[in-house]
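Below is how a single chain appears once it has passed through the pipeline. First comes the sequence as given, then the structure the pipeline wrote out for it. We keep one example in the README because the format questions we get most often are answered faster by looking than by reading.
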Amino acid sequence: MAQTTILRPQEAADLGWLLEQQTPDRITDTHWQTRGVCAQTDPEAYFPDKGDSVKHAQKVCGGCEVRAQCLTWALSTDERYGVWGGHTEAARSRMRKQWKNTVEAGGSDPADGQR
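Resulting structure:
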């Protein structure tokens, strides 16, 4: 029996959207990175020191056109540092657990038919 992971509302909404879209579990084409708003801003905002605020990075990510690709990439590559797709390492860890639990429980696998 899979352990239930409790997601915050935005995490659940973003993960639900990714599962509905059946986004590939691994993005190998990284050209989307050049279109990210973060490419034109200070990278230190996305890799803050422990205890520093990530709110600025999350706000910038909220309006980014490649946020879904960014989050999918970070989830699929197990990116452990920084803010990706508007989510911190801790949030992505919870999302990864839920993603895995959904797939193991027979839910839609984001990689089905996408390879």
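Residues 17-104 form one domain.

See the next section for the split statistics.
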